[in-house]
Specification:
The chain contains 2 helices and no strands. By secondary structure, the protein is an all-alpha fold. The mean pLDDT is 92.
Length: 150
């Protein structure tokens, strides 16, 4: 029996490898985004802690030096939060770009798989036609041989 050989199989394999690479890139971009979000959350928690500490320092005995230190820490945290929000935004954009590239590569791979399926169907149809032709020849041969014998 004839063996099916898809002439663009190497391209399909290349598309699959590229898709795997893009999946890995997307996974790394997602991990970085999650990491940056966790850093942002930690900074927000630290800022809330400094604000709580400032309220505690404002009640009871007043320690001016501690209050100034706490206020400067809150100011520093605001700057760090702004910078971290920028990093989160960059990571999110990188993740979205990776997602778009992955989707595009997946579409290309699926297209090539469809082309392979169509080529395989055509191959099967060709085999069916050849088998029908052989069957017709055998029937014709048998018919004519029985006629000659009679």
């Amino acid at each position: 029996m004839a063996k099916f050989v898809y002439r663009m199989q190497n391209i399909l394999e290349l598309k699959r490898k590229i898709e795997e690479q893009e999946k890995a890139n997307f996974g790394m971009a997602t991990a970085r985004f999650n990491e940056e979000q966790n850093k942002l959350r930690d900074l927000m928690i630290r800022q809330a802690g400094y604000e709580k500490r400032l309220k505690e320092l404002s009640i009871g005995d007043i320690d001016i030096k501690a209050i100034k230190t706490c206020k400067s820490s809150i100011t520093s945290m605001k700057v760090a939060l702004r910078n971290q929000m920028f990093e989160v935004s960059k990571a999110q954009k990188a993740m979205e770009n990776a997602r778009k590239r992955l989707n595009a590569v997946m579409m290309e791979r699926k297209m090539h798989e469809k082309l392979r399926e169509h080529a395989f169907e055509e191959f099967l149809d060709e085999i069916d036609r050849e088998e029908s032709k052989i069957t017709d020849e055998l029937v014709s041969y048998s018919y004519f041989n029985t006629e000659k014998e009679e």
